[in-house]
């Protein structure tokens, strides 16, 4: 699929572990991570787990509230299993009737946004929120935050603690708000992209569609999730989570007869989500919000999805863009699948949004 230049032309790169100083505001300095990883394979899902040596070069911690998406129109909540507590933010749409049921989007953050402040998980949500706060895509956005010892996805037959709590929070919100249960969606970035795959594996009957970014999963699970429409995104120059991990999932879903779309961004590195959520071509959100678990077709303005972005094909059903797209914003954290490294992202300091 030929991608338009969704992403900002003002960008910075990471090469050889050196992060451009222009990524940081005053008072922030570079942090470098060196990791030696143990590769653990679980039915095709390869996690990079292991000993991580953090070399922090005088990095000043940014204020999470300054770095996060604005918290207006959000309420706080939490769920607990007795041993761990999961805080979350629930963004409520504006401009909808009091008795109107609206869709819900579950947003899963990346590794660098883990914590307990119940704010930092919103760091990369700005463009998503801009589309869903009101108007034709008005919806709830549920943004849970897992702590630094947790991970959204797992290779085990049962969900891990973080995913159990995430799904518990989701169902609690559904039960207490005016949610259109036929239009519940999940999306996530990096670690949250992997969690997106995991969520639809655990509860394929809950979600009407999924949008994972920069995160693969276990191809052996394709038969379990083939009935959930998926639009996956990954940059082919991702040096943190190998693009092959998403290619493998897409190919497995295609072979299983799944409803899957895939946009591979030529030249795109790990942090592609700012541009994807900006949706300058008006293709992603019309597609997403047209998906429904009900028997009635949802009509959403936007025309044919991707009609204006012709594609070229390469390999086994993988869509490869023919127009390079610049890398957006700061390179973030992630999980190296297959290559084996955990990296902790450094954050740029953002002023008021």
Give a verbal description of the structure.
With 353 residues, the chain is α/β, with parallel strands linked by helices. The protein has one domain (64-330): Alpha/Beta hydrolase fold, catalytic domain (Rossmann fold), CATH 3.40.50. The chain contains eight helices and 16 strands. The chain has helices at residues 64-67, 126-132, 161-176, 191-202, 222-225, 244-255, 273-278, 284-290, and strands spanning 14-15, 18-19, 31-42, 45-56, 74-80, 85-91, 102-108, 140-144, 179-189, 209-213, 230-235, 260-265, 312-314, 318-320, 334-335, 342-343. An eight-stranded mixed sheet has the order 5-6-8-7-9-10-11-12, with helices on both faces. The longest helix is centred in the middle third of the chain and has 16 residues, at 161-176. 47% of the residues are buried.
Short synopsis of the structure:
The protein has 353 residues and is α/β, with parallel strands linked by helices.
Key traits:
353 residues, alpha/beta, Rossmann fold, two-stranded antiparallel ribbon, globular, disordered N terminus
Could you tell me the strand content as a percent range?
25-35%
- CATH level-4 homologous superfamily: Alpha/Beta hydrolase fold, catalytic domain
**Broad shape:** globular
Structural class: alpha/beta
């Amino acid at each position: 699929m030929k991608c338009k230049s969704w992403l900002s032309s003002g960008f910075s790169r990471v090469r050889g572990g050196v992060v451009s100083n222009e990524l940081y505001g005053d008072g922030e300095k570079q942090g470098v991570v060196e990791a030696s990883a143990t590769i653990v394979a679980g039915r095709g899902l390869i996690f990079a787990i292991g000993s991580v040596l953090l070399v922090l070069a005088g990095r000043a911690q940014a204020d999470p509230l300054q770095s996060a998406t604005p918290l207006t129109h959000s309420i706080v909540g939490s769920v607990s299993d007795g041993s761990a507590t999961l805080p979350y933010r629930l963004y409520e749409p504006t401009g909808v009737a009091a008795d109107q049921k609206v869709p819900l989007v579950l947003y899963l953050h990346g590794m660098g946004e883990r914590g307990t402040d119940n704010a930092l998980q919103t760091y990369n949500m700005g463009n998503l929120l801009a589309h869903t706060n009101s108007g034709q895509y008005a919806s709830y956005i549920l943004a849970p935050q897992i702590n630094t010892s947790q991970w959204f996805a797992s290779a085990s037959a049962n969900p891990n603690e973080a995913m159990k709590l995430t799904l518990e929070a989701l169902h609690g919100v559904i039960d207490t708000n005016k949610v259109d249960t036929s239009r519940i969606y999940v999306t996530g970035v990096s670690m949250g992209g992997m969690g997106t795959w995991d969520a639809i594996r655990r509860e394929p009957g809950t979600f009407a569609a999924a949008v994972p970014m920069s995160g693969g999963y276990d191809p052996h699970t394709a038969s379990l999730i083939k009935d959930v429409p998926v639009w996956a995104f990954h940059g082919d120059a991702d040096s943190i989570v190998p693009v092959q991990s998403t290619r493998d999932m897409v190919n497995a879903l295609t072979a299983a007869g799944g409803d899957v779309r895939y946009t591979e961004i030529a030249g795109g590195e790990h942090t592609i989500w700012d541009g994807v959520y900006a949706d300058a071509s008006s293709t992603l959100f019309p597609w997403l919000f047209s998906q429904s678990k009900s028997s009635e077709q949802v009509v959403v303005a936007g025309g044919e999805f991707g009609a204006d972005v012709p594609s070229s094909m390469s390999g086994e059903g993988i869509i490869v863009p023919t127009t390079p797209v610049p890398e957006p914003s700061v390179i973030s954290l992630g999980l190296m699948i297959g290559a084996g490294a955990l990296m902790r992202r450094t954050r740029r300091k953002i002023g008021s949004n």
